[in-house]
Each structure stands twice: as structure tokens, then as C-alpha cells.
Amino acid sequence: MLAQETLKQIGSVAKESGVPIKTIRYYEELGLLKTSGRTEGGFRLFNSDVFVRLHFIKRAQSLGLSLLEIKEFIDVHEHGELPCDRIQIKLKDKLAAIERQIEQLLILKLELEGLLSGWETRPENPEDTICPIIERD
């Protein structure tokens, strides 16, 4: 005979996982987590798999994935497939976006360095300008 799994109330899950109760409720609302029922008092009950799921969600978020993207991957997993190929595509897209941001930031950095290198210049007619360093192209 199999031993019945001990279900945990939402407060215990929050305490053990470090994820606030409000966040756990939100994840359930989005379909990222599923309860295993409720107590007579209405408290949500979860099986031990919830910790694996919460870890996956936190890790995926730390990699820049949105909750909507994470939901898509969880849905694939719940249909018996591994979502790794889809995750790889998303992560490659994230990496490309970061590389574009880095390029834009480097251009901005050069522009700011150029502006600051001429900061000591004083305008000849200060009443005609607010700040000539910023106003020049």
C-alpha cells in the first residue's frame, strides 16, 4: 500500500520556498501552479511538486523570461513533452536583445563621454542657450 502524500498549506509552501503567499496565489491564478485541493477552512493545499515548479519559475524569471513565456513552457511539459527546444529559442532571442542593448549603450556612453570632455566650454552669449554642451549635435 502506498503512503498518502502529505499536502502542505500555502503558508508552509511560502515559508519553505521563500515565495510570498500573494505571489503563490498569483501564480495559481495564472495557471503556473495547481493546488491539490483546499482545507475545510479554504486554505490551498499543494503537493511536494510545488517546490520544483516554484524553483523553475524563479530560475526562468532570473533568465529574463516572462511569466507568460514560463506558462507556455509549463503547458508543454504538462502535455508530456520537454520544452527545452522552445526555451533555447527564447533564450537565444533574449541574448540577441541584450546584445542590441549593449550596442546602444556603448553608443550612448561614447556620446556622453564626448559631451563631458567639452564641459569646461562657456557660451559667448549665455542668454541664447540653456546649456550649449547638451544643445550641440
Give an overview of the whole structure.
This protein has one domain (8-118): Orthogonal Bundle (Multidrug-efflux Transporter Regulator, Chain: A, Domain 2), CATH 1.10.1660.10. Helices cover 60% and strands 3% of the residues. With 137 residues, the chain is mainly alpha-helical. Strands 1-2 form a two-stranded antiparallel ribbon.
Which residue ranges are poorly predicted, with pLDDT under 50 across at least 5 consecutive positions?
none
Adjacency order of strands in the biggest sheet: 1-2
Q: Describe the biggest sheet? A: 2 strands, antiparallel
* Secondary-structure arrangement, i.e. CATH architecture: Orthogonal Bundle
Helix- and strand-based class?
mainly alpha
* Spatial gap, N to C terminus: 79 Å
Beta-strand fraction estimate: under 5%
What overall geometry do the principal axes of the alpha carbons give? elongated
CATH topology: Multidrug-efflux Transporter Regulator, Chain: A, Domain 2
What's the CATH first level? Mainly Alpha
- What is the H/E string? EHHEHHHH
What is the total domain count? Answer: 1
User: How many strand elements?
Assistant: 2
Provide the helix percentage: 55-70%
The radius of gyration is 26 Å
Mean pLDDT: 90
Q: Figure out the total of helices.
A: 6
